[in-house]
Amino acid sequence: MKKMIAIILAAMLLIGVAAAVAEPMLGGWTVAESAEITEEQKAIFDKAMEKLVGVGYEPVAYLASQVVAGTNHCFLCKATVIYPNAVPEYKLVYIYQDLQGNAEILNIADLDIAGLAQPPVAE
């Protein structure tokens, strides 16, 4: 569980929402109160992923939302290439849901935890 919390915190830092204020800023990202994925969020995720092939994405946490002309969503996902013995990775998946309920993938970003957790260099 501690590892999952560390991954979620690192992901939040990557999307620049760790320092979000209590009241959502118009156009700014709002950190989710809970990382648990609701049925509504899962439905949005599934709709956006319908036509994606080659990699399986399993959402493990809902990180943030951004109100635009619709809503942007950020999920932390376990990604596995559809290939024997493939090693899973964690990715940030950004999804846009328009005002009519359509959903599409905006971006899939690498989650470079190692790049965030580099120890200080000894002088």
Examine the secondary-structure arrangement and name the CATH architecture. Roll
| Whole-number mean pLDDT | 82
Unreliable stretches covering 5 or more consecutive residues: 17-22
Helix content: 10-25%
- Separate helix tally: 3
Approximate strand percentage: 35-45%
Termini separation comes to 35 Å
How many structural units, i.e. domains?
A: 1
Number of strands: 5
Q: How are the strands of the biggest sheet laid out side by side?
A: 1-2-3-4-5
CATH topology: Nuclear Transport Factor 2, Chain: A
Main beta-sheet strand count, sense and barrel state: 5 strands, antiparallel
Category by helix and strand content: alpha+beta
Backbone CA Rg: 15 Å
General shape: globular
Description:
The protein has 123 residues and is α+β, with helices and mostly antiparallel strands. The chain has one domain (2-116): Nuclear Transport Factor 2, Chain: A (Roll), CATH 3.10.450. The protein has three helices and five strands. It has a five-stranded antiparallel beta sheet. A hairpin with a 7-residue loop joins strand 3 and strand 4 (89-97).
Summarize this, please?
Residues 17-22 have low confidence and may be disordered. The protein is 23% helix and 37% strand. A 5-stranded antiparallel β-sheet has the order 1-2-3-4-5.
Keywords:
alpha+beta; globular; 3 helices; 123 residues; Nuclear Transport Factor 2, Chain: A
